[in-house]
Amino acid sequence: MAKTVDLEKGWEEMKKGMAKLKATLEGQSDSPFDSEESVKLYTTVFNLCTQNRKSDHTEYAAELYKRYRSAINEYINETKETWHIFSERTSERWSNHNIMVRWLSKFFSYLDRYYVVKQSLPNLAEAGKACFHDLIEQEREGGQIDRDLVRSVVSMFRDVGVSGIELYENDFEVYMLENTSVYYARKALDHILVDSCPDYMLMVEQCLKTEKERVSHYLCPSTEPKLLEKTQHELLFVHANQLLEKESSGLSRLLEDGQVCISISVITNGLESVSTIFREHVTSIGQALVRNAADEASHKKVESKDIVGFPEQVFLRKVIDLHDKYLSYVNGCFMNNLIFQKALDEAFEVFCNKQIAGVSSAEIFATFCDRILKKDGGSEKLTDEAIEETLDKIVKLIVHLHEKDLFAEFCRKKLSRRLLSDRSVNEEHEMSLLSKLKQQFGGQFTSKMEGMVEDLILGREKQVEFGNYLRDNPHENRGTDMSVTVLTTGFWPTYKSSELNVPTELIRCIEVFSRFYTSNTRNRKLTWMFQFGYCNLIGRFKPKPIELQLSTHQAATLLLFNTSERLSFSEIMSQLNLPSEEVKKPLHSLSCSNYKVLIKEPDNKAISSSDVFEFNSMFTDKMRRIKIPLPHTEEKKKVTVDVDRSRPFAIDAAVVRIMKSRKALGYQQLLMECVEQLNRIFKPDVRLIKKRIEDLIHRDYLERDEDDVSMFRYKA
Amino acid sequence: MRRSSTRKTGPANPASSMNSSATDIFRSASSKAIIKELERIDHLFNLYANRSSGMIDPEGIEALCSDLEVDHTDVRILMLAWKMKAEKQGYFTLDEWRRGLKALRADTISKLKKALPELEKEVRRPPNFVDFYSYAFRYCLTEEKQKSIDIESICQLLDLVLGSQFHPQVDMLIDYLKTQKDYKVINMDQWMGFLRFCNEISFPDLSNYDPDLAWPLILDNFVEWMIAKQS
């Protein structure tokens, strides 16, 4: 039977009851607070809420709720001083507080069950704790709170908890963290649109610092990582993309302007997104460089299509600079973090493998090295240290090349060219580059090239020996000074040997050397490569004799004119015994270029098979010694084709190696290990690997497992 | 519970209870029948065999086929060869003939003819079929060191062996094999791959085909070709 109870009257009852409870707790009451009283209080609340069913009873309920909160607040305020002073009874105070809250909630539990659920307000127990959180929020907003108070409360939580930290974590921390999230989410929204990126970052830094402080002052240390995580998550991670791509102040711009602020180092969770932006930024710069270089290359008038022009060199210099700059970021601001190192590598991999003006990246890199190591490397006249440094840097970039084997081949070809025409700047630098490459990519990569350089060093020793030999055997000396360089086949690129009809003057010398060489060594066969040698001839021209530095082929051509003044193209060709292309080159250099040692009929710039040549006895030059160059064409296509052909064998070798040691392996695993092994040399095409595996099955090296078709076995 | 003593169960073994002469009669009766059967099988062999080589050669096989009223390109002849475990395409030796006909319990032409449907059923049962399928490939390897078969023959073989069961796949596969240029011959691994493909991959949507798995490359290409055709 519900009595109609007026709110104020009912509240009076409640106040009396609460006061009694308080007194009991304080030990000030005579009569203990008993269950009868508690039931009475419960009923009062119940009645207050349920009466006037016709009218909206939520009015009372709302009021009661408000009063409940203020009752708790009051209680806290009242007892604040008590807590502070009687600190030894603080834990008692806390449990009293809890008891108070519990009892009150019991009274008001009707409220809790119906009203609160309806209105989705935080339930009473939480409301009690929320008061504490309000304190913290107060502090966050800049208000002063009694930190000591909060600290003791917190330590109470810890001490009172039945199983240690649980009470703290479950009752207090959880709610506090939630609160934190909400608070910072709001803050983030407020600031993200308004602040520029650096300002926002500063704010973030500030917030993180404050939270850290808060923990050290009055929270449990275990809260720190969770608190920081929540803060960062709300402030940074949720808005990461916005932050980073903010126009004119986002991270991309910052990186460009070189103003990356240190606060990035504070972030631990936003790293992934930051590194993605970093990578994309670097990639886009790199690709812009590639595009520039391509544009310049197409605009520049290149004399010969096969010669790689200078824009490519400029391009690589810029790439080196780019790498230096961003590597310093990785090492500095990003504190060598692996994620950023990886992002940098990935970015470089993208644009370091692009073709420029039809020239593959492997060739571009090889040409770059060639220029550094050539005597007359164009505009790049560098000191020894500069050369070393550049080589160091370029080797670091070569790591990103996919087609390392192609690069190695181009390198080898160019090295050969350099060594044979004596245009290498310095053997030490050559060996230095080779040892750097060896360090990065293994001995197999550089063994042939090292052999080439060593051949030359040995060749010089041999020459000294040959000189001694001639001295010791004066009858062997035929009057013509000759030096020979012996190349080990296999190290050097394969060249077709020249079928030149050797001039008589040379024949004797060749015989002498052959005798010397075979007396010195065993089981060696010498094949003469006349296309690479050079000669000094003295041309007895009417005005004055001039010494001519020529290639052997050129010299042989000229020597023909010792016996006849005029020769036709076909006569020259038959006497030289060379194919027509090989005849045209020296003739062109001797009759159509700067030094017209031969007169050509007809007098045009092209050699045709009907031409006739005559010795130009009136030829002269202000110099007494001239060098007549013979241009060489690089067989670029052949290099690419050769390398392409060698790759299937490399794959075969890798597969067999792997299967031999593993005996049985699943397809996907085999594929993975193959790619891993081969990546040091080139980036293998998955389909090609599959094809090679099938070929190996066909050749009975492997077989498919009968029961598991995705498994392969090695057949011994 | 007491352990029951071991007892011989079931009807008494006639061989042990009868005297030995009965066994002999029994054995001799069955062996006489066997001998008769063998004789008839051999007789049948001689009807078709070539006098000089002592084997049934292609001509003989053709004669056999017409007697069986089966086309000599019919798959059932291939199945017969499988049953015989015949080694050389177009030839049956006496041993092979005996083996096959004994297993089929056929010693006359009419019995052989009647055995063919049963043989076909037997072959089409999954474990046998895989064996038959790979046998079909080996059977076509005529030269000594030969390991692959040319595309044209493969197409015919595919149709013969799989045509009835997987008609749409075989049609498309043959179409592809004839147009592609990467492969001029097919090896055993690829051949077995075709069967797995027909059995496992839903057709024509090819939705469950994964090129990252260890399928032969030619099938990867085939699937690519099909998808391109379908779009």
Automatic annotation (TrEMBL), chain A:
Pfam families: Cullin, Cullin_AB, Cullin_Nedd8. Residues 360-591 form the Cullin family profile domain. GO terms for biological process: ubiquitin-dependent protein catabolic process. Belongs to the cullin family. This is Cullin family profile domain-containing protein. PROSITE patterns: CULLIN_2. The lineage of its organism: Eukaryota, Viridiplantae, Streptophyta, Embryophyta, Tracheophyta. GO terms for molecular function: ubiquitin protein ligase binding. PANTHER family: CULLIN. InterPro entries: Cullin, Cullin-like_AB, Cullin_homology, Cullin_homology_sf, Cullin_N, Cullin_neddylation_domain, Cullin_repeat-like_dom_sf, WH-like_DNA-bd_sf.
Automatic annotation (TrEMBL), chain B:
It comes from the Eukaryota. Residues 1-21 are annotated as: Disordered. Residues 36-227 form the DCUN1 domain. SUPFAM superfamilies: EF-hand. Gene3D superfamilies: Cullin, PONY binding domain (1.10.238.200), EF-hand (1.10.238.10). Residues 11-21 have a biased composition (Low complexity). The gene is LOC104589061. InterPro entries: DCN-prot, DCN1-like_PONY, EF-hand-dom_pair, PONY_dom. Transmembrane segments: none annotated. It holds the Pfam family Cullin_binding. Neddylation of cullins play an essential role in the regulation of SCF-type complexes activity. It comes from Nelumbo nucifera. This is Defective in cullin neddylation protein.
